[in-house]
């Protein structure tokens, strides 16, 4: 089941993909590799449409701000690009 972060919660985004299936596959693969870092966070696929094109953002959360930033820095040490962002 996909969960959605509530406004004001922090999430960690690992990428944005052209379709939902790809985003979900990336999240599943990522969870297997980084479970020790991401803990009990829920995988979130968050669609966003801009200029008529929809991207599916692969995310985890929710976290407290400090936790999200810490998770992201640990992921970067493993050469995983990520972004800690607050939801709106």
Describe the overall structure.
The protein is 36% helix and 36% strand. It has two helices and four strands. The protein has helices spanning 20-38, 65-77; strands at 10-17, 42-50, 53-63, 83-86. It is globular. The chain starts with 9 loop residues before the first strand and ends with a strand.
Compute the number of strand runs.
4
C-alpha Rg, in Å? 12 Å
Number of discrete helical segments: 2
> How would you write the strand order of the largest sheet?
2-3-1-4
Give average pLDDT, whole number: 91
SSE-based structural type: alpha+beta
Low-confidence stretches: none
Percent helix among the residues?
25-40%
Largest sheet: 4 strands, antiparallel
Shape: globular
Q: In angstroms, what separates the terminal alpha carbons?
A: 21 Å
Q: What is the strand content?
A: 35-45%
Write a compact overview of the structure shown:
The protein is of the alpha+beta class and 88 residues long.
List keywords for this structure.
single chain; 88 residues; alpha+beta; four-stranded antiparallel beta sheet; 2 helices; 36% helix; 36% strand; globular
